[in-house]
Design a protein that fits this description.
Layout: H1 2-22, H2 25-52, E1 55-61, E2 80-83, E3 95-97, E4 103-109, H3 110-115, E5 122-124
Antiparallel strand pairs: 1-4, 2-3, 2-5
């Protein structure tokens, strides 16, 4: 009958629970699961770190406006190029100069790119005919 089953099961169940508590089985299981999860998290974070620290190349190419006669003879060498970054802490790191071909190669990590606000535009300072 159900009553007999419960009367036998309850003391036996209580005995099992008592044994589990006395031997700290639950604590060991919790510790093992915690270590396992920490290991998995560490591995994931290492993977993310590796991707964020990958170096990427950005090439800036300056072009003259073919329709403008004002800058027809402009020398593209040595022009200051500044990326428009939203994080002012990185402003000094995100700049350079064009070479004789009007190009600038820039290296950065994915983390640096994201942390600087993911710049997509540059500013180039050019002196006009009147020296402005």
């Amino acid at each position: 009958s159900q009553d007999l089953k419960e009367s036998i099961s309850d003391p036996h169940f209580a005995s099992i629970i008592k044994t589990l508590h006395e031997t700290n089985v639950f604590d060991r299981i919790i510790k093992e699961l915690t270590l396992e999860m920490q290991g998995k998290l560490y591995n994931k974070l290492c993977g993310i770190q590796k991707k964020l620290n990958q170096v990427h190349q950005i090439k800036v190419v300056l072009k003259r406006d073919e329709d403008s006669e004002e800058y027809a003879d402009l020398d593209l060498n040595g022009l200051p190029i500044v990326f428009k970054v939203s994080n002012s802490a990185h402003k000094e790191m995100w700049k350079g100069e064009s070479n004789k071909d009007g190009e600038m190669d820039f290296s950065c990590t994915l983390l640096g790119y994201l942390d600087s606000g993911s710049p997509r535009e540059v500013e180039v300072t050019v002196e006009g005919p009147a020296g402005k």
